[in-house]
Amino acid sequence: TKKAYLCDLQKIIDLRVFHAIFLNETKLDSCVPDAFVHQPHYKVLRRDRLTNGGGGVLVFLKRELKIIANKILDDYEIIYFQIQFKSSICDFLACYKPPDTNSKEFISFIAGVAGDRVTHRHRFGCSGRFIQQRGIRQRETGQVRHHGLEVHKRF
Fold this sequence. Notes:
By secondary structure, this protein is of the alpha+beta class. 22% of the residues lie in helices and 34% in strands.
């Protein structure tokens, strides 16, 4: 049940062992205030689906992490942010592609967001799910190199 998932999530957050926690399909919308997802030891970045319910992306980042830039994008369910670790800057994307979204357009959009960060060999991480659609193979490691990105299937 939804309540059980929320309890499990809270247990994971309470461990405080993860620097970042990425969630997809949060099903949050503008009716759910930020206070609902507030956590004392984590900063929260969220991008709710704007129409039709479902979807949504949520990122919890430990408060001690230094976020030097972030964008919550309107075009797709994408959160882009940069974190400074000592002398390194790392770029991250948390994203979700709904089944009815064109995969090629979505990958091209992500490549545009990542831009020269990937080509200049900055550290770059991408979290999200690329859903298999009829007639389109699921993206696996290395299949999107021509866009400047490398997608890794993590789970």
